[in-house]
Amino acid sequence: MAKQLVKPSILPGFMELLPGDQIIFNKMMDTIRRNYEKYGFVPLDTPVIEKSEVLLAKGGGETEKQIYRFMKGDTDLSLRFDLTVPLARYVAQHFSELAFPFRRYHIGKVYRGERNQKGRFREFYQCDIDIIGNGKLNIINDAEIPSIIYSTFKDLGFEVIEKKISPEEIKEADEVFLTGTAAEVCPVGQIDDALINNGEIGKITENIKNIYKNLY
Fold it and tell me: How would residue 137 be classed by pLDDT, with cut points 50, 70 and 90?
């Protein structure tokens, strides 16, 4: 009986690159990683496979429909669908061993069993940064994020960057901390044309200025 030939192929929605593209991809990853570490984030990696009860602890519904789930013996396992739930498990498991605020970055593959289409994959990378506090976490930590985004995209070669932030997202904030391009702390409500023009919040690039000017 003749052996049936198997056509070499990968599953739809999964990605692999030729060497030239992989080199470019790796350089992009190095740039992102370098920026995260510049701002004091430490690397973290977690298993691609987690216990299903962990991944679905606060999920269910659409999440349960999208995950890759399987049984190995008596163990119910799933591929991680994002990096946030594994982070929550990691912090809970190692709480007494961590220093807070815990600033971590995680660059890794995640998996979602949804219909692949243009711009949507079943296997893809996420590049996460999170700041975990023990009790109250100062709003300064959240306000730092736009500067990290700007620095990262600039180093990736994007010259025009516009980040829109809803005023409702920070209306309860008492202060905003701008790092990298400015090192001042000032009340959110005082970030206006006058302060920017007279230099009281330091040297801020036009892109970052517009983020905050447009809020008020």
Answer: confident
Domain co-membership, 118 together with 202: no
Q: What phi, psi does 22 have (nearest 5°)?
A: -65, -35
Domain-located, residue 94: yes
pLDDT, tens only, 109-121 = 999 988 877 778 9
In a domain, 166, yes or no: yes
Cβ-based burial of 111 (10 A; exposed 0-12, middle 13-18, buried ≥19): buried
Q: Is residue 162 part of a domain?
A: yes
User: What's the domain count of the chain?
Assistant: 2
* Maximum pairwise Cα distance, the chain: 85
Say how far apart CA 205 and CA 39 lie, in whole Å.
Answer: 18
**Does a structural domain hold residue 5?**
no
pTM of the full structure: 0.72
Residue 180 has pLDDT above 90, yes or no: no
